[in-house]
Amino acid sequence: MNNRFSFPFLLFLFFFSFCTSKARKPNVIFILADDLGYNELGSYGQKKIRTPHLDQLAKDGMRFTRNYSGNAVCAPSRCVLMTGKHPGHAFIRNNGEIKPEGQRPIPLNELTMAEVFKKEGYMTGAFGKWGLGSPGTEGDPMNQGFDRFYGYNCQRHAHSYYPDYLWSDRDRIPLKNNPPVPGHASLSTGADPQDPKSYEIFKGKDFSSDRINEQALKFIKDNKDKPFFLYYPTLIPHVALHVPDDELKPYLKLKWNDPPFTRSQGYGYTPHFTPRAAYAAMITRMDRYVGNMVNLIERLGLTEDTIVIFTSDNGTTHLKLEVDYDFFDSVGDLRGLKGSLYEGGIRVPLIAKWPGKIKAGSVSNQRTGFEDWMVTLHDLIGAKTPLDAEHDGFNITLDLLGKNNANRPPLYREFSGYGGQQAVWMGKWKGIRQKMLRKGKNHDPLKIELYDLSKDESESEDLAQKHPAVVNQIKDIMVKEHIPSKEFPIKIID
């Protein structure tokens, strides 16, 4: 034969090429907890709260130790995740409610993660709390790249786990809570705060998070034969302290010293007779939902074809009377809580699993941020859709695959809430400044605090005076990375 290759061999090459070209793109499940602290999972050192499914996820994948949420509270953090832009460039930079329901919308011209997946042929679904645009506005999830949405549009509406309705795409779907349980309420007049029956009015019949998880599982089943992107921004463990009795009872048996949260101070969410047990039970309930999804993926034979990512939108709430973060050691030795750009407010768990690609039981100390996921997932799925030229993400694919990756460029955060804050992570250094929104007669010079995180993760020793050159570098980055926003102004005072 004069032919260089035999016909059977050429036929094999044809079918191999065909199969390769038609190889399924990986599914992506992105799970976002709400106000979960850095130290509130067993795999991160938690001793009191049971999280067996998430701990197994960490054993089967990679656990990150220096991961930073998009911002210190819900909406701006989620905007960073969805757009790949850090808070100095992102449109949403603080929570901002719009009556009667919802938050300020992401503009239509913003490219979201969901839109990238959709353009790449994925079915896209969001299940849980949105918080990036009122129903029917340009920020509505159905206008931002999602084929399917089920849950809460509005963050305030999501303060109750027993509402009278949820959103299904663009329709309001009633739940069996009649009347609904409010997210903010007090004990009835004359009620005995030491009587557990006084708290029964804060229990509903239809637990919204159960319904949301059911719809997420249905989405997986409905799309098992095509690539899908499932965004799962669960409400848990954001207060109010609402949780079904079946999850609560095992923790009650532990007989913790658990004084009631009565809301006697007039602020906070709904009262609970055993707040410590309730908080732990909520996180265990969330863990159960994660287990439901991972187990379903396995039963459907999709484990090898599915990337699972778990993280949190910010750190543990600062409402001590409701969530006893000291009792749970919620942030470990870190300083700060939700609303703060100190480590405890913004360093959060991150677990990634992809069998055969991400090494089981591995740990990464790479500094990562929410803005990194847009470009990283774009790479992992082999996307061709152009990204926004202004995205700020650092591709962590090499880190996920266990290969050496150069240290990322400096990480930048700003937050116009809680007095106005900026922070920069640069190598081992972290610079942070507070109280940037001046009021009244406060004319103290604006200072940058400097911490060596390689030796001082608790941010206890300010080294700014010893390293003025480093402080100036950080100051320059703060100025460079901040693009002024009319909607969320921060006056930079030098």
Structure commentary:
This protein has a 10-stranded mixed β-sheet, with helices on both faces. The protein contains 12 helices and 14 strands. Strand 12 and strand 13 (429-433) form a beta hairpin. The chain folds into 2 domains: 25-400, Alkaline Phosphatase, subunit A (3-Layer(aba) Sandwich); 411-481, 2-Layer Sandwich (Arylsulfatase, C-terminal domain). Helix content is 25%, strand content 16%. The chain has helices spanning 7-21, 52-60, 74-83, 113-119, 208-222, 245-252, 275-299, 325-328, 343-346, 372-380, 397-400, 468-481, and strands spanning 27-33, 62-68, 123-129, 148-152, 165-168, 171-174, 228-233, 306-312, 350-353, 362-369, 411-415, 421-426, 429-433, 449-452. The protein is an alpha/beta fold.
Q: What structural category arises from helix and sheet content?
A: alpha/beta
Strands, count: 14
Number of domain units = 2
Distance between the termini: 81 Å
- CATH fold description of the largest domain: Alkaline Phosphatase, subunit A
Oligomerization category of the chains in this entry: single chain
- Identify the strand order in the major beta sheet: 6-5-4-3-7-1-8-9-2-10
Sheet of most strands? 10 strands, mixed
Which architecture of the largest domain would the CATH scheme give at its second level?
Answer: 3-Layer(aba) Sandwich
CATH superfamily of the largest domain: Alkaline Phosphatase, subunit A
Global mean pLDDT: 93
- The portion of residues assigned to helices is 25-40%
Count of DSSP H/I helices: 12
Radius of gyration: 23 Å
What pattern of helices and strands is seen along the backbone?
A: HEHEHHEEEEHEHHEHHEEHHEEEEH
Q: Given this structure, which CATH class of the largest domain is correct?
A: Alpha Beta
Percent strand equals: 15-25%
